[in-house]
Every structure is written in structure tokens, then in C-alpha cells.
Amino acid sequence: MTGPEQPDTPLTEDVGKQGECFRLWRAQQAIRLGELSLSEQEKSRDSLSKLAVSLMGWAISIAIVLLGAAIKTDQPLPFLAAAITGGLCSFVAALFCHLTFRMKNWEIPGVQTDYFLTFGETGPNGEETDTTEYCTELDTLNGIALGYAKAFHHNEEIIQKMAVRVRMAWTAFLAIPVLTLTGWIIFSVFY
After folding, report:
1. Which residues pair with 2 in a beta bridge?
2. Which of 20, 105, 108, 110 is spaced 20 to 30 Å from 141 by Cα?
3. What is the DSSP letter of 75?
4. Where are the chain's structural domains?
5. pLDDT band (50, 70, 90) for residue 39
């Protein structure tokens, strides 16, 4: 018995797209991944915003209650110190939550339709361009993909700033009971 028959033609391995087809495929994949990345960033931004909204509601409510209690003048000094300290911590937490919403210039996935309609007259950012700059589908897709990469880095900076502000808000919020109790103790002992 002899071994398996060998084919007359050598086996070739499928390596996928090659040459110009590979460059076009790569640009299409870069756009697809850029859109996915920007969409995920938007989910992160929304998550941080929801967290800040929730925390802001609690912080404002606590600040109103504590500062309102401090306004009542017939309370002992330790109570007033504790109420003012806690109210100020709540106010600081609410302020950091508010600053979280002040982040602007968010980049979204997609390209404005006028980018394609005024092609050759203006570039992707509205600047005057040479009509030969984006003369092929590949060049156009590469330009869009590069725009997505810039947008991703821009949005990442915004997300990092938002995360720091939410973290500061949580720190101030979690400090409310500690500083309130500390204020109560200090004014009880020393005054």
C-alpha cells in the first residue's frame, strides 16, 4: 500500500488580501474599529455622566439639609460646626459633579455629508485643500480613519478629566461623615 497521493499543484496558503486590495481592506477596518472605539468611549462618557448626576442629587440634598440645620441659631456650637462642615463637603462634591458636565467638544463617529459633497473644495476639517489630496477611495478612507484616530485621542483626554472630577466628587462625598464627626468632636472638646 502506498501513501496518500500528492496533488499535481503545490498547496498554497490563503493569506487574505494583498497589494492594493490589502491597503483598501486595512483602511476599511481602521474606519470600522474607529467607529467601534468612539462608540465605546461614548458609553464611558455616559456612564461617568450618570454617576455624576446621581451623586450630585445626593450631594445637593445633603448640603441643603445640613446647611439648613446650621442656619437654625439655637443649636449648640458643636452641632453648628458639624452641620457646616458636612454641608460644605456636600457642596464641594456637587461642584465637582457640575464640573464633570462642563466638558465640551466631544467627537462622535461619522463624517458630515458635506465632507463628500464638497470633495476637492474643502478637507475633512473645512480647510481648503488641493483637489488631488484625496483622489481615490483609499485616500478618502485613510483620511476618515486618521480623523477617527484624532477624535479617539481627543475624547480620551475628556474621559480622563471627567473621571478625575467624578473621583474628586466621590472623595468629597465620602468625607462628609468623617469631617462632620471630626467637626463635632473638635468643637465639643475645645469649645
Report:
1. none
2. 105
3. S
4. 28-190
5. very high
Concatenated DSSP letters of 119-185: BTTB-TTS-B--TTTT-SHHHHHHHHHHHHHHHHHHHHHHHHHHHHHHHHHHHHHHHHHHHHHHHHH
* Residue found under cell 449648640: 76
Q: Which residue has the cell 496533488?
A: 7
Stated as kind and residue range, the H or E segment containing 26 is helix 19-71
Terminal-residue alpha carbon distance, the chain:
106
| Grid cell at residue 153 | 485621542
Residue 87 · residue 67 · CB < 8 Å = yes
Do residues 154 and 70 lie in contact, with contact meaning Cβ atoms separated by under 8 Å? no
Using one digit for the tens of pLDDT, what is the confidence trace for 91-137? 999 999 999 988 788 888 887 777 666 655 555 555 655 555 557 88
Specify burial of residue 55 (Cβ count, 10 A radius: 0-12, 13-18, 19+).
buried
Angle at 143 (CA atoms; ends 142, 148), nearest 5 degrees = 95
Beta-carbon contacts of 122 under 8 Å, excluding residues fewer than 6 positions away, are 114, 128, 129
d(CA 155, CA 106): 6
- Predicted TM-score (pTM) of the model is 0.75
